[in-house]
Amino acid sequence: xxxxxxxxxxxxxxxxxxxxxxxxxxxxxxxxxxxxxxxxxxxxxxxxxxxxxxxxxxxxxxxxxxxxxxxxxxxxxxxxxxxxxxxxxxxxx
Length: 93
Fold this sequence. Notes:
Elements: H1 12-28, H2 35-51, H3 54-58, H4 64-82, H5 86-90
């Protein structure tokens, strides 16, 4: 996923999976232009930070599990700000 040299962009199965993933993101953010890509960038960045141990270090998390919880919290905060996440739905937004 993180090595472009390993991707075979002409593979129809890969293209279909990419289209499906972007479609899911687009529907989650109600097709607001740019938000699906912004969402993808946010999650991609969190994955890279968690994978490299930087999220755990930056948040002074005691374990990888605690860093993963931080990533979930940040994602929930982001989606709540969009008015699409559980926190926004719970508050009636």
